[in-house]
Amino acid sequence: MNTNTMNVSLQAVVRIVREAAQLMRVTDFDVMQKGACTNIVTSTDIAVQQYLCENLHILLPHAGFICEESDFFDTSSSQVWIIDPIDGTANFARGHQDCAISVALVSDGTPVLAVVYSLFSNVLYVAEAGKGAFRNGLSMKVSCRGLAESMACGGFSLYDKRMSPLCWRVFEELFYQCNDFRCIGSAALGLSALAAGMYDMFFEIRLSPWDYAAAQLLIVEAGGVVTTLQGKPLTYDKPQAVVAANGVENHRLLLQVIEKYQR
């Protein structure tokens, strides 16, 4: 790990995220399409991202940025902030509470700091590498539920619906094997809830780095497992599938179901 990242205070990042979140309290904002009606951005997304970038740059001037809006992709530094200003924009635009700011600091390809903040639910998830994961200040751990007791969470490839048949088949089979299923419209919050023991399995066929970078560290620090479809570590250079679970066995079973329908 680059020693420069040790100078970044988690408390300072949390303060910046909380300040940026206040911009989400507006009721009058513009909604724009990003190529299709299923992929939207609001003027609030853009305002939140700008605030985060400006203030996080002050904390770590040499760091690059990977951000959802405006294709902001700067990885020239070994340290990179990965930001989703509002994960769950469709929820936010419709007045649903399930949306969050997601910020991760990645050093030499490894997440070292994570903040996921849901303003309207007043839930703050944080983690630092090697220091555990916390929800509203309380240490959190993944659950120990087996498949039959598990609650699965995920989504259906909204931005490329041609990929959705695999998702439907996987979740249909899981539904009959596990306890229940949820689709909340925010990958960052779904993955964070898994870290907190509220969900036990997670699958989405295509997510971008800003969707999962922060929550990935939360899950790892809480004792869970998160990988690609091939069981490999997640990377941050392109969209990819995310498979997560509360432990090795549920993760293995989830991968088996996915592989069955990939053939």
Polypeptide structure, described:
With 263 residues, the protein is an alpha+beta fold. Helix content is 32%, strand content 29%. The chain has seven helices and 15 strands. It has helices at 10-21, 43-59, 89-93, 164-177, 187-195, 209-221, 248-262; strands at 31-36, 39-42, 64-67, 73-74, 79-87, 100-107, 110-118, 123-128, 133-135, 138-139, 151-154, 180-182, 201-207, 225-227, 240-245. Strands 4-3-5-6-7-8-9-10 form an eight-stranded mixed beta sheet, with helices on both faces. Strands 12-11-13-15-14 form a five-stranded mixed beta sheet, with helices on both faces. It has a two-stranded antiparallel ribbon with strand order 1-2. The longest helix has 17 residues, at 43-59. The chain is globular.
Helix and strand topology:
Blueprint: H1 10-21, E1 31-36, E2 39-42, H2 43-59, E3 64-67, E4 73-74, E5 79-87, H3 89-93, E6 100-107, E7 110-118, E8 123-128, E9 133-135, E10 138-139, E11 151-154, H4 164-177, E12 180-182, H5 187-195, E13 201-207, H6 209-221, E14 225-227, E15 240-245, H7 248-262
Parallel strand pairs: 3-5, 11-12, 11-13
Antiparallel strand pairs: 1-2, 3-4, 5-6, 6-7, 7-8, 8-9, 9-10, 13-15, 14-15
